Amino acid sequence: MNAAYTLEILKILMDETDETHPMKLEDIAEKLREKYGSNTERKAVGRCIEDLGGGLESGGWPYRIEHAPNKGYYISERPFENAELRVLIDGVLSSRYLNSTVSQNLINKLIAQGDRNFHPNVSSVTTILDDWSKTSTIELFDNVETIESAMKKNVQISFNYSHFDVSGELVVSRLHDNVSPYRLFVKNQRYYVMVYEDGANEPGYLRVDKIKDIKELDAAAKDIRNIPGYKRDYNLETIITTLPYMFSGPTEHIRMRAKEEAIDAIWDYFGKNATIGKQPDGTYMVSINTGARAMEYWALQYVGLVEIVEPKSLRDKIRDDLSCGLDKYSEDKKS
User: pLDDT tens digit string along 29-55?
Assistant: First the structure.
């Protein structure tokens, strides 16, 4: 029996069987005729299933096929549990850097890995894709592949970077040339690449789904240890995990006073990178090393619960933001 029959039988076992729904050889043969037009005898199906079982023992298949006496065969072990598949599907569904078409294709592939009881529970997932905020770009995977290739070869890249116009379409902003890529990562449901562009004052964080016309260059990437602001204890993981929003800028030591209601959000955004100490008045003093611009936006979001203590420059900037906002909302204005 050729490989095509083998895959067809495996697909039938994956889609139709589990421990409570085994299939007899004659039923599998009938299903082969219905779905694929394959005229296969019962004995040939049995030999194929034996080959599949042998492939498992040699590491060829990530599935386990069991036989229930007088009942038939079924898949008893799969690469993913149903709960694991649901987590992966929800991850794809909520990922803003994947467009609707790519999301649907990935979700369909994940659904196919589940057992017959899993399919009805998630069959409606793709019907709500349009209700989620998704990128419109179709170049994400090509961009990731090129960036990873450049990082592996330690060479620079060039690309056009885009922004959304008032109609919601991505339009080219400007060319980025001689860019050294250092790290791909996900933050706030977006895919970013950490880069350094020749002549810049610091590293930058760019959305991968906004990159267009990416190319590898022959020029060697700049050693991260030689970029402005580099320190010997520089740690990419710390930089990425301590920035609540992906604004570039130097890291500063920031102290803020927080009410107890803000502690949950502080742990969510900063985790163990934040040092928290309770004060005599019942508030908490929080210390963290992070970017001032990103912290400005974060503190404004939680302005009723936190107060920046230092640095003074950040405290003054937030005061100016609040003053400007107060002027805008101090009286009703006609549109």
Answer: 999 988 888 887 888 888 888 877 654
Contacts of 274 (CB under 8 A, 6+ apart): 266, 267, 286, 287, 288
In angstroms, the CA 231 to CA 239 distance is 12
Alpha-carbon dihedral sign for residues 90, 95, 100, 103: negative
Please tell me the pTM assigned to this model: 0.55
- Closest residue by Cα to residue 216 from 156, 175, 174, 161: 156
**Phi-psi group of 175: left, alpha or beta (phi > 0 → left; psi -120 to 50 → alpha; rest → beta):** beta
**Could you read off the pLDDT of 150-194 as tens digits, one per residue?**
999 999 999 999 887 666 677 888 889 999 999 888 777 778 898
Write the CB contacts of 200 (distance below 8 Å, at least 6 apart in sequence): 228
Strands (E), 201-250: 204-207, 211-220
Report d(CA 223, CA 74) in Å as an integer.
Answer: 54
Q: Could you check whether the bond before residue 228 is cis, i.e. omega within 30 degrees of 0?
A: no
Q: In what order do the strands lie in the sheet with 170-187?
A: 204-207, 190-197, 170-187, 155-164, 211-220
For residues 58 and 50, what is the distance between their CA atoms, to the nearest angstrom?
13
How many helices (H) and strands (E) would you count in the chain?
11, 11
**Which tens digit of pLDDT belongs to each residue from 119-160?**
766 655 555 455 455 565 667 788 888 998 999 999 999 999
With CA atoms as reference, report the closest residue to 274 among 297, 296, 293, 258: 258
Rounded to a whole number of angstroms, the distance between the first and last alpha carbons of the chain is: 74
Q: Which of 287, 290, 288 is nearest to 248 (CA)?
A: 290
Total number of residues shown for the chain = 335
What is the CA 229 to chain-centroid distance, rounded? Answer: 29
Residue 204: what residue type?
G
